[in-house]
Specification:
Catalyzes the first step in hexosamine metabolism, converting fructose-6P into glucosamine-6P using glutamine as a nitrogen source. By secondary structure, the protein is of the alpha/beta class. The protein contains 13 helices and ten strands. Strands 2-1-3-4-5 form a five-stranded parallel β-sheet, sandwiched between helices. A five-stranded parallel β-sheet has the order 7-6-8-9-10, sandwiched between helices. α2 packs parallel to α7. The chain is globular. The protein starts with 7 loop residues before the first helix and ends in an 18-residue tail after the last helix. The structure holds 5-amino-5-deoxy-1-O-phosphono-D-mannitol (M6R).
């Protein structure tokens, strides 16, 4: 069943190239435009702002899409669903509410989706499960086609969510502004290469030997900006979820507003770089290195400016900056997996956690 892999998580990490092929299959035209069968051009012409509702890993994919929409001039806000269910943001006629949920059954996400439905917002579910409650209750559904995910830790569903949300982002921007975004063609062309690039990260990663050197520290911090910010948060979530070691993800700029007090030579800092705001993140790297913290940089293999400024370097293939987070996240998945394996944790079923959280 696990096809020779020690854990479903590792199997599912390896399944990401195939999952991504399915996610994009038929959704990019020959001239690099978005083609979503469910949403022909103009479907989102009336959208003024976008709210994303989701939990955990799905929330990180939502923040990723939020950053992309904002970069392209469309107001977007990612909310944690549990908060939105009790303290919802006001919606108006032009608000599109997108529930992002792998299972389509997460109680907090369903509660927030219902609140949006009751208040008359237009709703859309982005999910992996056809026929799930979210897919049925939202006005529309868009499927990520990741295939079944057994490990409690979300891996391939995150990658597939980000890619499908990136397609949705480009559809929305084109509909709202009347033309493809300035990034669309390059992004969609790069997206075609993403499955094989993920495959090369999985095959060539040196995360296992790095894990040996950095397991069992006082804490591990993850930082990033722009789309690398939710990837840092996702890296930290995965790390704590399966290794049971303390980890936190921060927006790189926030470090100096408090968390820096925790930084010591025993707290490795993992910096995620998208290629867009690297100089600023490198300033934050300097702040932690001067406190003696070892820094691990995850960036495009061509990023000499990063490689030369960190203690350890985990390279990923060069891609469009807005897709770089998908590749960086695969490195982070492998770091967490190998640390947890080294510590002999229950990787596929971490203590206290369930795959689908059906209570609020
Ligand atoms: O099924 P969902 O995407 O709605 O699940 C939301 C979270 O419970 C989930 O992403 C959780 O954070 C992951 N299992 C963490 O790896």
């Amino acid at each position: 069943e696990r096809d020779g892999f020690d854990h479903y998580m590792l199997k599912e990490i390896h399944e990401q190239p195939a999952a991504l092929e399915r996610a994009i299959n038929g959704r990019i035209t020959d001239d690099n435009r978005v083609h979503l069968e469910e949403f022909p051009p103009g479907s989102f012409a009336d959208v003024g702002e976008v709210h994303f509702l989701s939990c955990g890993t799905s929330n990180h994919a939502s923040v990723y899409a939020q950053q992309m929409l904002r970069d392209r001039g469309v107001p977007a806000y990612a909310f944690t669903a549990g908060e939105y269910a009790t303290t919802p943001a006001p919606v108006s006629d032009d608000t599109l509410v997108v529930a992002v949920t792998q299972s389509g059954e997460t109680a907090d996400t369903l509660a927030s989706l219902r609140s949006a439905n009751e208040r008359g917002a237009r709703t859309l579910a982005v999910t992996n499960v056809v026929g799930s409650t979210a897919a049925r209750e939202a006005d529309d559904a868009l499927f990520i086609r990741a295939g079944p995910e057994i490990g409690v830790a979300a891996t391939k569903t995150f990658s597939s969510q980000v890619v499908v949300l990136a397609l949705l982002v480009e559809r929305i921007v084109e509909d709202v502004t009347g033309e493809p975004s300035a990034e669309a063609e390059a992004l969609l062309s790069a997206m075609r290469e993403l499955p094989s690039q993920v495959d090369s990260v999985v095959r060539e990663s040196t995360a296992a030997s790095l894990a040996n050197r950095y397991a069992e520290r006082a804490g591990t911090f993850f930082i990033g900006r722009g789309v690398a910010y939710p990837v840092a948060c996702e890296g930290a979530l995965k790390f704590k979820e399966i290794s049971y070691e303390h980890a936190e993800g921060f927006a790189a700029g926030e470090l100096k507003h408090g968390p820096l007090a925790l930084v010591t030579p025993d707290t490795p800092v993992i910096g995620v770089f998208s290629g867009k705001h690297d100089t600023k993140t490198l300033n934050n790297v300097e702040e932690v290195r001067s406190r003696g913290a070892p820094v691990i940089g995850v960036a495009a293999e061509t990023s000499d400016h990063v490689a030369g400024a960190v203690d350890e370097f985990l390279p990923v293939p060069e891609t469009h900056p807005d897709l770089s987070g998908v590749l960086a996240n695969v490195q982070l998945q492998l770091v967490s997996y190998h640390v947890a394996d080294l510590l002999d944790r229950s990787i596929d079923k971490p203590r206290n956690l369930a795959k689908s959280v059906t209570v609020e």
